[in-house]
C-alpha cells in the first residue's frame, strides 16, 4: 500500500500485538507522546509549569539568565510517574531522587545534542537545560524510562536507557489532530521530497544511530507511503508533503511484530519528524556504576517487590 488517506482524523501509530512487556513499553511511549503532562511541553498541561507557583523560578525561554535556577526547578518538578504501574510488574523502582533525575536530564541532553547533529534538526547547539520545557523520569531496574522536550517542540525519549522515540511536535502527523486549518495550510506548501528521497533520509537516520537492518532483523526494503487526503468539495485525492517509512518483521505464525522501526519524514522540513523503535536486538546500555546509589538503594534491592 503506497498511500495513507486522511479524512480529518489523526492516524495513531500502528501498535500491533506483541509480548506484554514490550507492548506496554511502546504504549507508554505513545501515551507520553500524545497526551503527557510534561513530555509534549504543553504550557497548559505541563508538569513543569510555565506559570510557576509563588516563590518558584519561571520556566524561561532560550537565552534568558538564571540557568541554575531553571535547572533546579526542572529537577524538583519533573514528572516522576511514581504510581504509573501499581503492583510494579515491569521493574519500576519506587524511589525517584533528585540525583537520578539529574542523571536523566544530563543523559537526555547528551542524546538530544547527538540526534540534533546526526539528523540535522536545526536546533542551535549546544542544547542545554536552559532550553528544556518538559522533563519526566521513571527509573527501572534496567535503566531509565524518561523523556525531555526542547523548546516545546522537539521531544526525545529513552526506555531502559536506550533511545526509543523522537517527535517534532510541530510537524509530526499528530500535530494536525483537531487542526484542519493547519493541515490545509501545510498541504499547500511545496513538497521538497518524494518517496525515494524520504526513504534515503530515513535510512541515513537509522544508520547514523549505528544500526543496520540485518542487525535488527529488519527487511532491507521498508514500506514507504505518502499521506493522501480528499480535497473538499471536489473530493479529489491530493498528496500531503509527509512520508512514513516502516521496517518490520513479524513473529512466525503470528500477526505480532518481532522487530519494528517507524519514521515520519516531512516534505516541508526535509527532516525526520518522528521515530519509534521496538526491537529485542537493540544492544543494551550499561548502567553507571553508581546507579543504585543515586536511587538511594543497595544494588541487591528487589525493586519489583516494593
Structure description:
This protein is α+β, with helices and mostly antiparallel strands and 306 residues long. It is 24% helix and 24% strand. The protein has a 9-stranded mixed β-sheet, with helices on both faces. Strand 3 (143-150) and strand 4 form a beta hairpin. The protein starts with a strand and ends in a 12-residue tail after the last helix. Mean pLDDT is 76; it is low at 1-65 and 301-306.
Short summary:
This protein is an alpha+beta fold and 306 residues long.
Topology overview:
Blueprint: E1 3-6, H1 20-34, H2 67-77, H3 98-118, E2 132-140, E3 143-150, E4 154-159, E5 162-168, H4 180-187, H5 195-208, E6 223-230, E7 237-250, E8 257-266, E9 272-278, H6 291-294
Parallel strand pairs: 1-6
Antiparallel strand pairs: 2-3, 3-4, 4-5, 5-9, 6-7, 7-8, 8-9
Amino acid at each position: 500500500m503506497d498511500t495513507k488517506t486522511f479524512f480529518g482524523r489523526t492516524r495513531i501509530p500502528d501498535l500491533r500485538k506483541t509480548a506484554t512487556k514490550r507492548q506496554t513499553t511502546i504504549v507508554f511511549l505513545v501515551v507520553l507522546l500524545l497526551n503527557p503532562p510534561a513530555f509534549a511541553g504543553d504550557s497548559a498541561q505541563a508538569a513543569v509549569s510555565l506559570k510557576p507557583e509563588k516563590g518558584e523560578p519561571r520556566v524561561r525561554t532560550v537565552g534568558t539568565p538564571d540557568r541554575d535556577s531553571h535547572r533546579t526547578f526542572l529537577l524538583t518538578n519533573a514528572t516522576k510517574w511514581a504510581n504509573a504501574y501499581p503492583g510494579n510488574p515491569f521493574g519500576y523502582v519506587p524511589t525517584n531522587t533528585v540525583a537520578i533525575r539529574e542523571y536523566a536530564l544530563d543523559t537526555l541532553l547528551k542524546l538530544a545534542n547527538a540526534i540534533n547533529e546526526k539528523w540535522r534538526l536545526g536546533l542551535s547547539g549546544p542544547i542545554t537545560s536552559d532550553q528544556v520545557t518538559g522533563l519526566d523520569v521513571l527509573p527501572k531496574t534496567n535503566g531509565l524510562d524518561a523523556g525531555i522536550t526542547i523548546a516545546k517542540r522537539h521531544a526525545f525519549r529513552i526506555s531502559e536507557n536506550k533511545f526509543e522515540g523522537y517527535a517534532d511536535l510541530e510537524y509530526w502527523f499528530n500535530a494536525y489532530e483537531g487542526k484542519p486549518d493547519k493541515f490545509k495550510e501545510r498541504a499547500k506548501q511545496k513538497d521538497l521530497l518524494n518517496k525515494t528521497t524520504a526513504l534515503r533520509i530515513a535510512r541515513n537516520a537509522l544508520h547514523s544511530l549505528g544500526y543496520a537492518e540485518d542487525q535488527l532483523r529488519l527487511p532491507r526494503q521498508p514500506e514507504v507511503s505518502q499521506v493522501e487526503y480528499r480535497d473538499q468539495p471536489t473530493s479529489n485525492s491530493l498528496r500531503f508533503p509527509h512520508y512514513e517509512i516502516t521496517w518490520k518483521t513479524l513473529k512466525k505464525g503470528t500477526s505480532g511484530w518481532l522487530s519494528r522501526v517507524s519514521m515520519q519524514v516531512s516534505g516541508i522540513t526535509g527532516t525526520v519528524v518522528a521515530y519509534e523503535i521496538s526491537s529485542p536486538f537493540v544492544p543494551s546500555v550499561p548502567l553507571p556504576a553508581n546507579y543504585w546509589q543515586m536511587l538511594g538503594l543497595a544494588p541487591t534491592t528487589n525493586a519489583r517487590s516494593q
